[in-house]
């Protein structure tokens, strides 16, 4: 029986993204490459121009919506838990719970299991596939909120804050994933509110309606929507939110886990699609890694927390 060995350079970060030389592929590359394995369709993880794109069918649907010039033949759809090979590496997608189609990427090579999380969350969100736990020797985790001082509040209690006013609300949120989760939360816990979707958000809502797990109740925004009546919520993408200050008698709210994005708004709405400190440690306990490699954030708190228990380091560059 071959001894299982963890390779420090199995996945490294270079100017194009996260590269695995043992399978000659990139994960979430920032620029066009030959073989791209995509965790999810957010713009900081998915770009066009690759020769071959490996992703879940829902991720591909969002990429095709955004990247209309990308050849259809370049997309190679994979089911969750379906094993495929690139070089000598076996890969499979595992639900990440971040947005519809999001995936952790399990890579197996010479007996060792490397798990790249992509972005993920443990909080319930019935608009997308729930996160699944698997064991791995190396956990390659995002650390966006890997800080003991950051604990996300209950999203249900947060969304109920919107019931405190009958004034119309302009609610800023990311068009893909967050807007659909927010819409469903409003439909469920603020039933008297009417949701209007910005024209850049509405097409993503339609994809969720056709491929997702929850029916979204909303209307398409029009110029008169917020002028007549109350109890209306207008969902807008970040750029629109930050540039629109002319509306009167409108409550400004932005849905995010970042405190800086709550500044100068009329109400805070701490709803994040990333893990917080407690959920990160819950996840680590379930994965049971021997090593943790950190990406997309700061790993110093994890390194201190697991000193003498689990080896923690930033991914190699």
UniProtKB/TrEMBL annotation:
Alphabetical list of Gene3D superfamilies matching this protein: Ribonuclease Z/Hydroxyacylglutathione hydrolase-like
Signal peptide: none
Entry-linked SUPFAM superfamilies: Metallo-hydrolase/oxidoreductase (SSF56281)
GO MF term (any one): RNA endonuclease activity
Domain Zn-dependent metallo-hydrolase RNA specificity as annotated: residue spans: 271-305
Top-level division of the source organism's lineage: Bacteria
Pfam families in the record: RMMBL (PF07521)
PANTHER family: BLL1145 PROTEIN (PTHR11203:SF49), CLEAVAGE AND POLYADENYLATION SPECIFICITY FACTOR FAMILY MEMBER (PTHR11203)
Protein name in UniProt: Putative mRNA 3-end processing factor
Organism annotation: Sphingobacterium alimentarium
């Amino acid at each position: 029986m071959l001894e299982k060995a963890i390779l420090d350079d199995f996945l490294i970060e270079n100017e194009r993204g996260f590269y695995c030389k043992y399978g000659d592929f990139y994960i979430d590359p920032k620029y066009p490459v030959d073989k791209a394995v995509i965790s999810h369709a957010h713009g900081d993880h998915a770009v066009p121009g690759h020769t071959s794109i490996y992703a879940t069918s829902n991720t591909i649907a969002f990429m095709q919506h955004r990247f209309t010039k990308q050849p259809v033949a370049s997309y190679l759809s994979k089911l969750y838990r379906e094993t495929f090979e690139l070089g000598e590496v076996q890969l499979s997608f595992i639900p990440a719970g971040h947005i519809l189609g999001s995936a952790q990427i399990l890579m197996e090579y010479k007996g060792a299991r490397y798990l790249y999380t992509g972005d993920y969350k443990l909080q319930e969100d019935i608009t997308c596939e729930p996160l699944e736990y698997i064991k791995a020797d190396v956990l390659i985790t995002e650390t966006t909120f890997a800080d003991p001082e950051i604990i996300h509040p209950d999203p249900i209690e947060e969304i109920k804050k919107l019931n405190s006013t009958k004034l119309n609300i302009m609610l800023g949120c990311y068009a893909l994933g967050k807007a659909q989760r927010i819409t469903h939360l409003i439909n469920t816990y603020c039933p008297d509110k009417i949701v209007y979707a910005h024209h850049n958000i509405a097409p993503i809502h339609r994809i969720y309606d056709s491929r997702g797990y929850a029916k979204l109740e909303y209307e398409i925004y029009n110029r008169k929507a917020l002028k007549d009546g109350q109890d209306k919520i207008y969902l807008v993408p970040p750029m629109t939110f930050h540039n629109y200050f002319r509306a009167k008698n409108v409550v400004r709210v932005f849905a995010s886990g970042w405190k800086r994005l709550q500044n100068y708004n009329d109400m805070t709405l701490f709803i994040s699609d990333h893990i917080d400190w407690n959920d990160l440690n819950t996840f680590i306990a379930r994965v049971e890694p021997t090593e943790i490699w950190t990406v997309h954030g700061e790993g110093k708190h994890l390194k201190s927390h697991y000193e003498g228990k689990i080896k923690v380091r930033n991914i190699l560059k």
